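Box 3.1 A note on notation
Throughout this textbook, protein chains are presented in two layers. The first layer is the amino acid sequence; the second is a C-alpha cell string describing backbone geometry. Keep the layers aligned when reading.
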Amino acid sequence: MKIAICDDDETIRNQLRGFIFRYAGENTLDYKILEFCKSDSLLEQARQDPDIGILFLDIYMSPVSGIDLAETLRAEGNSCSIIFVTVSTDHYARSYEVDAEHYLVKPITYERVCQALSRCRGVLASSARCASFLSGGREILVPLKDIRYVEVFRNQTIVHAGRDITLRSTLETVAGQISDSRFLRTHRSFLLNMDYIDKRCGCDIYLKTGEKIPLSRTCEKIFEREYGRFLTASMTGTSL
C-alpha cells in the first residue's frame, strides 16, 4: 500500500512523513510514501497507480487545487482515502462532497494525524504485517502488532498475542517468521516486542500488560543498544 503526500511546502511534507512513519511503526504497518510538490504530478501518478490508498492533500495547490483534484479522481472512479491538509476551513463543506476521510487545519500535530489515519482503518488493514503460523494442523495469521512476546516452555514455543498459540517450532524458526526489528531476544527462551515494554528493573523487563520477561546477562548489552535505538526512532518518527 502507498501513501501520497502532496504539498508545495517542503517543511509540511517532512513533518507529515515523520508523523506517518511514527504511526506506521506504532501500528506495525508496511507501506511506501510518495511525495509531490505539484498537484498535476500527483494526479497523473494516482491515475496510473492503484496501490495509492491514502492521499494527504493540500487544498491550495497549483496548477490544480486539492479540491478540484479530488473531484477529478472521484469522477474517474478513484476511491482512495483523502485527507485534506490546509490553512483554512473555507472548503470544509466541499470536502464532504468528495467523501474526504478527514480535514486537517495547519499547523498539524501528531495526534490529529493519528485521528485522520484511524479513519482509514479499512485501507490500513490491508497493509498490516502478519506472521503465519501452523498450529493444530491449520494456518493462523497473527498481526505482528498483537504479539507481545514469544517464549519456549516445556519444549513448546508459545506465541502470546490476543490469545496464546502453541507451536511445534523452535524459537529461531518463529523469529524468522516474524522478522521485524521491533522483536528482540532478551533470553535464550524469550523473544520480545519492544512496543510493549513499560520498564526494566535489573534482570526483569515489565510489559505494559503487567507481564514480566527475563533479561539474561548475555542479551543485556544487545538489549540496551537496540532498545535505545527503538526509543530514539519512536521519538523522532523515523524507521528502525
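The domain at 2-125 is CATH 3.40.50.2300 (Rossmann fold). The first helix runs from residue 10 to 26.
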